[in-house]
Amino acid sequence: MAGNNPRSPVNADIRDPSLADGGRGRIEWAWSEMPVLRLLHDRFLAERPLEGLRVSGCLHITTETANLARVLQAGGAEVVLCASNPLSTQDDVAAALVRDFRIPVHAIRGEDTDTYYRHIGAALDHRPQVTLDDGADLVSELHKGRTELLEGLVGGTEETTTGVIRLRAMAREGALRYPIVAVNDALTKHLFDNRYGTGQSALDGVIRATNILLAGRAFTVVGYGWCGRGLALRARGHGAHVVVCEVDPLRALEAAMDGYRVMPLRLAAAQSDFMVTVTGDKHAIDRSHFEVMKDGCVLANAGHFNVELNLEALAAMAVERHCPRPSVEEFRLSDGRRIRVLSEGRLVNLAAAEGHPAAVMDMSFSNQALSVAWLARRGRELAPEVHRVPEAIDREVAELKLAAMDMRIDTLTDEQRDYLSSWREGT
To answer: 427 burial class (0-12, 13-18, 19+ CB within 10 angstroms)?
Structure first.
């Protein structure tokens, strides 16, 4: 579908252009919660650091992503977007991006697998010089089937843990052909977005989908990285009895000292009312866990891809399946037990809710915007590997966020700086 201006149609594939009014209102609501991006928008508009740069983004098409796109556009970039998850697109936002911001969007909520990859192909047809990814599907498709585009690439960014893991695997094998900045690893991203964003939004998705009281229930968090920490913290705040399952002894020990029960997943499955995966790995919950799972257990994924739950095994075990509520599918096993899966095992915070609050995405997407500007200047000097966000960018985002929150901090005196840089002065 094209945009609504017949003189200058936008090449887009969205569900319904008539949804644009609602999408624009929600984009502006999120904009009011993103003060750092607003500051960068004004700076980019004045300096135009991305003039003429072709940018293709494979991201969740949400209100927050829309505001990142408008900042890149203000900097002079030519932006095209596709979805990084078939169930994360907000169709009204896609419509507003096309109509009001003239940004080509190829994304429809609930699109099938063929359409999903066709949309990624459309984003690559833009012949990007910079890619923005959330899960590395765009980068993967580019390296597998569109290698003729690699020569023109300056660099890329990656938003999430799963994508960074995939990209580092590519780099180890010597397969990665251009530099990628791991925005996920910025302190102002994973300390806040992963912990507070995932913690709130994943629980929001579980509650919206089920409307089941959490207080007094056994709630198992599978994986205790930054996302798992946030989810466990928020579930405990709702009065749930939180269990943590881990494969890393250090993280398991941390969870125990944070006050959670730690146990093997098969043992947790037999007693959990809710189980949510945040591992970034395949089949974290598998057939052996379904075999002992408590009747009525609710399963959700807040990692990235739906492979965290072995849904093929669950489907093979089921004698009946139906959808008692939107975003809920119930599998009944031969012994009568019911296992309830939320949002087809896809990201529950986006598929059953609205994703992370704009206030935390403000920092993540400010890192994205500043990293794209940095790549525009420096990308051709960088080796084809996964790079950290420059510390100066990370610190700038933190400083801008504090200023936006009307908070001030102290600075070191010259004497203190000298002391920290010297080894001579002791007791």
So the answer is: exposed
Q: At what angle do helices 391-404 and 35-47 cross, to 10 degrees?
A: 120
224 within 8 A of 257, measured Cβ to Cβ? no
For residue 234, the cross-strand partners are none
Average pLDDT taken over every residue of the chain: 96
- Residue range 369-394, pLDDT digits in tens: 999 999 999 999 999 999 999 999 99
The predicted structure's pLDDT at residue 167 = 97
User: Which parts of the chain register pLDDT below 50?
Assistant: 1-6
For every residue of the chain, which 3-state class applies, written as one string?
A: CCCCCCCCCCCCECCCHHHHHHHHHHHHHHHCCCHHHHHHHHHHHHHCCCCCCEEEEEECCCHHHHHHHHHHHHCCCEEEEEECCCCCCCHHHHHHHHHHHCCCEECCCCCCHHHHHHHHHHHHCCCCCEEEECCCHHHHHHHHHCHHHHHHCCEEEECCHHHHHHHHHHHHCCCCCCCEEEHHHCHHHHHHHHHHHHHHHHHHHHHHHHCCCCCCCEEEEECCCHHHHHHHHHHHHCCCEEEEECCCHHHHHHHHHCCCEECCHHHHHCCCCEEEECCCCCCCECHHHHCCCCCCEEEEECCCCHHHECHHHHHHHEEEEEEEECCEEEEEECCCCEEEEEHHHCEHHHHCCCCCCHHHHHHHHHHHHHHHHHHHHHHHHCCCCEEECCHHHHHHHHHHHHHHCCCCCCCCCHHHHHHHCCCCCCC
pLDDT of residue 7: 53
Q: What is the pTM of this model?
A: 0.90
pLDDT digits (tens, 9 = 90+) for 239-283: 999 999 999 999 999 999 999 999 999 999 999 999 999 999 999
Beta bridge partners of 245: 222
Q: Bridge-partner residues for 59, per DSSP?
A: 83
Please compute, for residue 367, the number of CA atoms within 13 A of its CA located in the half-sphere on the CB side. Answer: 27
Q: Please give the span between the terminal C-alpha atoms of the chain, in angstroms, as a whole number.
A: 72
Are 302 and 277 spatial neighbours (Cβ–Cβ below 8 Å)? Answer: yes
So what's the pLDDT on residue 304? 77
Query: Which residues lie closer than 8 Å to 186 by C-beta, 6 or more apart?
Result: 364, 367, 388, 389, 393, 394, 397
How far, CA to CA in Å, does 389 sit from each of 73, 122, 252, 412?
21, 28, 28, 24
Cβ neighbours for 413, distance < 8 A, ≥ 6 positions apart: none
Read off the amino acid at residue 400: L
